[in-house]
Amino acid sequence: MKVVIIEDEQLSAERIKTILHQYDEDISVIAMLDSVKSVIKWFKENEKPDLLFMDIQLSDGISFEIFEQLKLELPIIFITAYQ
Fold it and tell me: Do 55 and 6 form a contact (C-beta atoms < 8 A)?
């Protein structure tokens, strides 16, 4: 399974990656992105993954802004430190 982690806190992104590998060593984290801008650029240049882990608040905006520019048709798990 190919996974992309969208998280602006590097330690949190690394922790998610570690947990995924503990769960299943065959999971491949193919990108770790930290901003709305980087996500849009990445998806325009790469094949879509099987699953996204997406923080809501990113370094340059809210992740929902991504959906205004991209049509993402894949499972997304939203993650956040906020309530």
Answer: yes
CB 37 within 8 A of CB 10: no
Please list, in sequence order, all residues whose beta carbon lies within 8 angstroms of the beta carbon of residue 35, skipping any fewer than 6 positions away.
8, 58, 59, 60, 61
Q: What is the pLDDT along the chain (83 residues), one digit of tens a residue?
A: 999 999 999 999 999 999 999 999 999 999 999 999 999 999 999 999 999 999 999 999 999 999 999 999 999 999 987 76
Q: What are the helix (H) ranges across 29-69?
A: 36-45
In the block, tokens 């906020």 appear at 82
Predicted TM-score of the model (pTM): 0.92
Q: Which two tokens mark 1?
A: 């399974």
